[in-house]
Every structure is written in structure tokens, then in C-alpha cells.
Design a protein that fits this description.
Helix content is 33%, strand content 22%. By secondary structure, it is α/β, with parallel strands linked by helices. A hairpin with a 5-residue loop joins strand 8 and strand 9 (148-152).
Length: 237
């Protein structure tokens, strides 16, 4: 499922921007289909322009009925009557998604015999000070089994000792949910930490859900700003 809003605070209509001859959202949809990992791929949107763009390109799209504050809520509405076990949320502004990273995320459920994983997601190591301190880059810290402890827009952990050799990880906004966890999410109210950081993954942690993080080396390009789009256009060529 690819949640797709037309409005975006930092870069309005970013999903309809041209990326080497096709809109960003079409490139993302095609990339998800081409992984050959999914039974079905849908764009879930609140906007007729995006809906029509996807269907005219031969893709599958669903229109949201309600207003939603985040992608998880939008997807939950779309899958409520579907008989599915695992739902993957691919962000509409990530046309560089790769099959191996998605395969690794899905693999954790195959070995989860105790059924302790509610959802899984991706993280990638970051080293540049500018990115570590950038509030647009969501960071994650994990325990010794790679379960998420917390997500933040601040640098975490804080390097109090100048000699510390800690690693920093960027959270990539790709999730694989058990359907039950997704249904719980949409009925649970937002709490203070999620409201403060504006990171929907925190809601799962605040209600005791377990998020398994999978490290990837593929950073890709998330198109959040016009500068990101320029980078994406160069990378696509």
C-alpha cells in the first residue's frame, strides 16, 4: 500500500513532480510492482489528481473516505475488509525502493515463530553530522535484538563523551505490519510523544507494540524538498 497525499507542508504536490518523464508517484508505484514481492499493490490517496494519474498509467488506486493525519490511518481504512496477513507501507516519495531491502523486512515475519513482532521497518547507518542533526531526518535507536527503543528528530543517542564511537541510524519510512497491529493503531488515540515529535511510529511504541528494525545499506532518495527532487532526477539519469 502506497499512501499518497497531494498536500505536503515542505513541498506541495511533490508526488506529481516530473521524474524523468513520469510523476514521482507513478515511479514509486512501478518500483513497488517491479519487486515482484506483492500479491497486490495499491496507491491510497485523498486526491482525484493522484487517483486518476495512477489509473491512467494502468495502476491500481483507492480513494480514502475519511480525512487522515498519517499514512498508517489511511492504509488501515483501505485494508479493513481485505483478507491479508502482512501489509507493507511504501512511502509515495521513495521511487528508489529496492527489492532486497523489502525482502529483508518481510523475512523477519517468516522466522517470528513466537509472534512477537507487530511490525518491521528499515534503518540505514548515517555518518554526516549535518544529516544526524537535521530534524527532517528521523533517527532510531534499538536494543541488542534490533527492536526499536525510540524514534526522534533529534540526534539520538546524545554524544556526551566526545570519544564515543556510537552509530547513528536513519529510519526509512517503509513498514511491514501485521494486520492486527495496523487495526489497533487506527483506533488508538495519539499520545504526547507522537504529538511532540510528529512521528507516527512512536504511537506503536507508546502502546507497547514491538517494532523490529532491519538494517539496510541502501539509502535511496526521499523527495521531501525541491533539492531532493533535483538529486533524484540526476540519480535517475
Amino acid at each position: 500500500m502506497i499512501p499518497a497525499r497531494y498536500a505536503a507542508s515542505r513541498f506541495p504536490a511533490k508526488l506529481m513532480q516530473d521524474l524523468s518523464g513520469k510523476p514521482v508517484i507513478v515511479r514509486t508505484y512501478e518500483a513497488a510492482v517491479q519487486t515482484n514481492l506483492f500479491d497486490e499493490v495499491y496507491v491510497v490517496t485523498d486526491n482525484s489528481i493522484i487517483f486518476n494519474t495512477i489509473t491512467e498509467a494502468g495502476g491500481k488506486a483507492l480513494m480514502s473516505i475519511k480525512e487522515h493525519e498519517c499514512g498508517s490511518d489511511r492504509i488501515a481504512e483501505a485494508v479493513v475488509d481485505m483478507e491479508v496477513d502482512i501489509i507493507v507501507n511504501v512511502q509515495g516519495d521513495e521511487p528508489f525502493i529496492d527489492a532486497q531491502s523489502l525482502t529483508d523486512v518481510l523475512e523477519v515475519f517468516k522466522t517470528d515463530t513466537a509472534l512477537e513482532i507487530d511490525l518491521a521497518s528499515l534503518m540505514v547507518k548515517i555518518e554526516e553530522k549535518e544529516e544526524i542533526e537535521n530534524p527532517n531526518t528521523v533517527k532510531v535507536i534499538v536494543d541488542n535484538r534490533n527492536f526499536a527503543l525510540y524514534f526522534s528528530r533529534s540526534p539520538i543517542p546524545y554524544p556526551r563523551a566526545a570519544s564515543s564511537k556510537t552509530h547513528y541510524y536513519k529510519h526509512k519510512g517503509i513498514y511491514a505490519f501485521r494486520k492486527s497491529a495496523l487495526m489497533d493503531f487506527q483506533r488508538l488515540p495519539m499520545l504526547s510523544l507522537e504529538a511532540t515529535e510528529k512521528i507516527e511510529a512512536i504511537r506503536y511504541l507508546e502502546y507497547g507494540k514491538k517494532i523490529k528494525m532491519v538494517e539496510t545499506v541502501v539509502s535511496g532518495i526521499e523527495i521531501d524538498t525541491p533539492e531532493d527532487l533535483k538529486r533524484a532526477q540526476l540519480a535517475w539519469k
